[in-house]
Amino acid sequence: MRKLTEAWLLSFCLLVLISSCSMQKQIAKQAEKDMLSDPGFLPAHVGISLYDPATQQYLYNHQADKFFIPASNMKLFTCYEAMKNLGDSLISVWYNDKGNGTIEVEANGDASFLQPDFKNQPVYNLLKKQRTVLLTDDNWK
Questions:
Q1: How far is CA 100 from the centre of its chain?
Q2: What was the pLDDT predicted at 41?
Q3: What confidence tens digit (pLDDT) does each residue in 73-116 have?
Q4: DSSP letter assigned to residue 119
Q5: Taking the CA atoms of the chain, what radius of gyration do you get in angstroms?
Q6: I want to staple 110 with a disulfide (CB 3.0 to 4.6 A). Which of 34, 77, 89, 92 is the partner?
Q7: Residue 112, phi then psi, degrees to nearest 5
Q8: How far is CA 13 from the centre of its chain?
Q9: Number of Cβ within a 10 Å radius of residue 92
Q10: What's the CA gap between 127 and 99, in Å, rounded?
């Protein structure tokens, strides 16, 4: 009886080991098929690391030993460059001056509009000068 239990336990452990190896191969095959062979990703710096905390094993690694700049850091540089190069030229509202003090406005979701922390309100100043303001919602489709 004991030998039967040991044989069953050994078989079970081998089955788990074989299935975990095949899982890694399946993940690698799927990653290669869906992403890494995509022409858009070929010039990109891509690193993938999947870790299973339950088994304390890595399921898949692709260039996991390389150092990459985190996306959050790149967002800081992007924001800096946008503020430096675009300055105050961001379009916060689209408008069509119809003449005679009438303006047609299409909002673009300016988060700073009428916020007290932003003392300069160019859109509000433009709207104050108009006699009639027509609001269109064409961009909210």
A1: 45
A2: 73
A3: 888 888 788 777 776 666 678 888 999 999 998 877 777 888 88
A4: -
A5: 29
A6: 92
A7: -90, -5
A8: 40
A9: 15
A10: 13
Cα gap 53→87, rounded to integer Å: 46
- Cβ(104)–Cβ(95) under 8 Å? yes
pLDDT of 26-77, one tens digit each?
777 887 777 777 787 777 778 888 888 998 988 888 888 888 777 788 888 8
Give the DSSP letter of residue 36: I
Element (H, E) at 104: strand 102-107
Contact in structure between 69 and 100 (CB atoms under 8 Å): no
Residue spans of the domains in the chain: they are 2-62, 87-136
At 5, the pLDDT band (50, 70, 90 cuts) reads low
Tokens of 4: 């039967």
Token couple for 91:
């379009």
